[in-house]
Fold this sequence. Notes:
By secondary structure, this protein is an alpha+beta fold. It is built from five helices and four strands. The chain has a four-stranded antiparallel β-sheet. The longest helix has 13 residues, at 35-47.
Amino acid sequence: MAFRLDATDRRILRELMADGALTNVALAKKVGLSAPPCLRRVRALEAAGVIQGYTALVDEQALGFELTAFALVGLHNQAEPDLRAFEDLVLSWPVVREAHMLSGESDYILKCVTPDLSTFQDFVLKELTAAPNVASVKTNLAIRRAKLAPGVPLSVPDDAG
């Protein structure tokens, strides 16, 4: 069941999604609360699992990661133990930054970030296509990122409006 958010919770989440490094005092000021009730709300959102953690967004290219690519993976078998085994393997690959199970033609899409094309090719040939149960791999190179919007679209109203 979805956690019920009021307007203040939404403001808190919008601010934290925009800048997770905000101090509680700065956050409270931005959302129109004093610091203690703001902190209580943040802690409640954390306890409910709405806020799962905090992270820094880094510039991949500034760190030498010039290539972002997507791999569409088809598996031979989709029985739950086979899916779990593939997901466990995905968790061990540092170049895979996101992995999603799909409906449709492919079973998974993997977002991969590497320093260059040869590193990505090595990963695809030596790790991904060689993995047990992998039947097919189709890759696409990202030309540029048009949008990055971590979190969820809080401008969409919930059931309560």
